[in-house]
Amino acid sequence: MNGLIQGVKGLLSFLSAPLIGALSDVWGRKSFLLLTVFFTCAPIPLMKISPWWYFAVISVSGVFAVTFSVVFAYVADITQEHERSMAYGLVSATFAASLVTSPAIGAYLGRVYGDSLVVVLATAIALLDICFILVAVPESLPEKMRPASWGAPISWEQADPFASLKKVGQDSIVLLICITVFLSYLPEAGQYSSFFLYLRQIMGFSSESVAAFIAVLGILSIIAQTIVLSLLMRSIGNKNTILLGLGFQILQLAWYGFGSEPWMMWAAGAVAAMSSITFPAVSALVSRTADADQQGVVQGMITGIRGLCNGLGPALYGFIFYIFHVELNELPMKLNSKNLRFQNSIIPGPPFLFGACSVLLALLVALFIPEHTNLNVRSSNWKKHCGSHGHPHSPQAPGEAKEPLLQDTNV
User: Fold this and answer.
1) Cβ-based neighbours of 252, under 8 Å, separated by 6 or more
2) pLDDT band for position 168 (50/70/90)?
3) Averaged over 127-140, what is the pLDDT?
4) Which of 49, 81, 305, 321 could pair covalently with 326 via S-S, beta carbons 3.0-4.6 A apart?
């Protein structure tokens, strides 16, 4: 059931993320920030009302559960280029911080007061988040770059979810970045879906050890995505930071794949924290390459690729565990001894080794991404199109549709 939900949600977010990002370039960020946060949190109260409605709503919520693309476009609006990588690192670090605190809080409250309080508290925090956006978060997109009102017309090209995907194939830089994100995030998404169960069932971690692992990994990720990322971006540059992050990810996944002792998992977890610098570095590179009125659509593409990986990754990892006969079903601890034979095999975690090969391909693709782009020679069809809101039905030059989203003569 979880794989089906994540698959549907991932596919929907893949199709909708570029559209939501593009519309936020036209109508503003705040409204879409409200929309994405609301639909991301909408399934929470249904956990206690109706499980089937919860499954249905969380699957469909993938259409709007693309907060990252709007948030990163918002950050690009309000920061200078040299500040952007640090800002993206802070955004990713706050996600890591929530990942550290919320499971422990939820587990404690659920054990002491029951699951109902956890759902009520989560719903209250979601409502507080929506109120915070309404009251405290200003619109970041300048008035001159968006219509005077929500009633302003918008053409089908701006609303076509496949139009931006076509532009990916026409622009070499964005295509290379999207392929890099897909090949590197696919194993990461699969890892998130199965790794903590793998620690318990195969590596023999207790529940407390898994919670401690999550906490340590989250704290190290926060440090990596703030202090370390900022130092690396200043010293070795954007592209080399991405390559270094991918290198750490290859090492981490290979270590997970061959590791047969608990201490190896802890060591690989420290390396995993360093690999978390890749996505903020990629987002900074994308925002640097795009014009101000394209931030939403290009960030939407990256978020859409991640959404697709969130759908495919768990299914892929589950299939590889299945064909290698690695059983991850919840079992009583006294029966776990039958799984110990996998610790003594050559490859205890086959999916992780497959993931390392995928990230190696991502690293090879990333080598062809140019470090510096000539922003003055790029021509944007999207920019031209959005610049003519007052005449949405005006004829378009025949060659204009052929122009890529971003042009660069260095590739």
Assistant:
1) 268, 269, 271, 272, 275
2) low
3) 90
4) 321
Which amino acid would we find at residue 151?
G
Are 119 and 48 in contact, with CB atoms under 8 Å apart? yes
- Asked if 249 and 361 touch (Cβ cutoff 8 Å), the reply is no
395: alpha, beta or left? (left if phi > 0; alpha if psi -120 to 50): beta
Locate tokens 């955004």: which residue? 91
Q: Which amino acid is at 196?
A: F
**Phi and psi for 344 in degrees, rounded to 5?**
-95, 0
CA distance 387 to 169: 23
Confidence band (pLDDT; 50, 70, 90) for 211?
A: confident
In this model, does residue 311 exceed pLDDT 60? yes
Cβ-Cβ contacts under 8 Å for 388 (sequence gap 6 or more)? 394
Query: What tokens appear for 385 in the block?
Result: 């199109």
Instruction: Give every CB contact of residue 283 below 8 A, 6+ residues apart in sequence.
Output: 72, 88, 299, 302
DSSP string across 89-136: HHHHHHHHHHHHHHHHHHHHHHHHH-HHHHHHHHHHHHHHHHHHHHHH
Nearest to 354 by CA among 327, 303, 319, 310: 319
